[in-house]
Design a protein that fits this description.
This protein is mainly α. The chain contains 17 helices and 3 strands. Helix content is 51%, strand content 2%. The radius of gyration is 25 Å and the shape is globular. It binds coenzyme A.
Length: 406
């Protein structure tokens, strides 16, 4: 690729700020020549470039391991299925923050500072819950002293605050008063209590807790990477998490279990599943909740959530339909794409679990963000503990150095 203004050095421009590695390279090539600058010379930047950073190792982590080939997800070495079977979200969050497995770890939802509540009340009622949550985290940061380096206490406080804030906003927009946190409840039942004004039954709380565990961590995904980039500048944990929420808001990342809901509604009954699936694919549509960029096997989070959904005491009829549609979809996808493993992903069973616990689909993405707080904040701690500013280079493909027309 021809490159631009890389004539040997620009001695008259000491204020250019950070030196470009490539400019250094060009200078090195120019030495020890005493020739006058050749502003029209071009150089080739042949350093490796991977669009979207795909396949690039951008850091090291001991938090989450995503094994797409074999369909495994480990948090600090522990299998996701075991964590769902034997853990709670607070225990898993604590594991991510500290490396210690304490199954009895208790974490209630946190208080909402008055300034944050006033901010939430000032938002238009039609504000998207993701926007409200991002705003709440930002306002929360303004009310705290968040010194460098970030601490597990900061991680705990923020992870505990956000469910209260989302629940408060969900009530305020319906003209209801927010509900105070109940310190005797753990984070997930506490969130449902603040959302609905009544304590959830154990099975409902357990199902949403399983969802939170499955959403807690997933390696260097876009929002987690955002959080690490922000904290690497020695900014603070609230800035890192509000940036991460902004990243997760994008449909390419935040996913759409609500689209799974819509799809199942369209199918209507198990007898119509086969025809509906084949028609949808023939129209060029994608089946929501199937396929994954990393997993080539059944997403282990989907397996864990299916088990939870099937074990729910009051299974909605809707869930039976979802299970029937999945069987058909897997069979048809295998038939149409024999060379490509297209399996169920986490979104598919997130949808019935979130529906069954009574959340409205427009709260799904923000609830996903609540669950990812544990992972985001653990990555913030990990990045800060061994910090290096994250600052990649870009390949310059603009015009070569030229004279301004005067
Ligand atoms: C998740 C997803 C974006 C991954 O995409 P990807 O790794 O880039 O996969 P590709 O786009 O390369 O797809 C490979 C082939 O499988 C097909 N395919 C992939 N996912 C499919 C799906 N859900 N339904 C139908 N066909 C699908 C593609 O059409 C493509 O077919 P082609 O080779 O004939 O063109 C994709 O599977 C998808 O759109 N799934 C539905 C949305 C979803 O569930 N998202 C949540 C992800 S957690």
């Amino acid at each position: 690729m021809p490159l631009g203004p890389l004539g040997p050095a620009h001695p008259a421009r000491p204020s250019d700020g950070e030196p470009l590695a490539i400019a250094k390279q060009a200078r090195r090539r120019a030495e020890p020549s005493n020739a006058p600058p050749d502003y029209h010379r071009t150089v080739t930047d042949d350093r490796p470039y991977s669009p979207g950073l795909e396949g690039v190792i951008a850091g090291e982590t001991s938090l989450g391991y995503v094994d797409g080939e074999r369909g495994r997800l480990l948090y600090r070495g522990y299998r996701i299925g075991d964590l769902v079977d034997h853990g709670t979200y607070p225990a898993v969050a604590n594991l991510l923050w500290t490396g210690e497995w304490d199954p009895g770890h208790h974490l209630p939802t946190g208080p909402i500072p008055e300034a944050v509540l006033a901010t939430l009340r000032a938002l238009p009622r039609e504000t998207k819950p993701m926007d409200a949550l991002r705003t709440a985290v930002s306002a929360w940061g303004a009310t705290q002293t968040l010194d460098w380096p970030p601490t597990p206490e900061q991680a705990r406080a923020l992870t505990a605050f956000s469910p209260s804030a989302l629940a408060a906003f969900a009530r305020i927009r319906r003209g209801l008063e927010p509900v105070e946190p109940d310190p005797s409840l753990d984070l997930v039942p506490g969130f449902l209590y603040q959302l609905n004004g009544e304590r959830p039954d154990a099975a409902t709380a357990r199902a949403l807790d399983a969802y939170f565990i499955c959403g807690a961590e997933h390696g260097f995904n876009a929002s987690t990477f955002t959080a690490r980039v922000i904290i690497a500048t020695r900014s603070d944990i609230a800035s890192a998490v509000s940036g991460a929420i902004g990243t997760m808001k994008g449909p390419l990342h935040g996913g759409a279990p609500s689209e799974v809901v819509e799809q199942i509604h369209q199918v209507g009954s198990p007898e119509r599943a086969e025809a509906w699936v084949r028609d949808a694919i023939a129209r060029g549509e994608r089946l929501m909740g199937f396929g994954h960029r990393v997993y080539r096997a059944y997403d282990p989070r989907a397996a864990a959530l299916r088990k939870v959904a099937e074990g729910m005491e009051h299974r909605p009829e809707w869930l039976e339909l979802a299970i029937a549609v999945e069987d058909v979809a897997l069979r048809v996808l295998a038939e149409l794409h024999p060379g490509r493993a297209l399996k169920t992903n986490v979104e598919y069973y997130a949808a019935p679990v979130l529906m069954a616990v009574g959340l409205t689909p427009d709260l799904f993405p923000a609830t996903f963000s609540l669950s990812r707080h544990a992972g985001w904040t653990a990555h913030v701690l990990e990045q800060a503990a061994n910090n290096r500013l994250i600052r990649p280079d870009a390949r310059y493909v603009g015009p070569p150095e030229r004279d301004l027309p005067v």
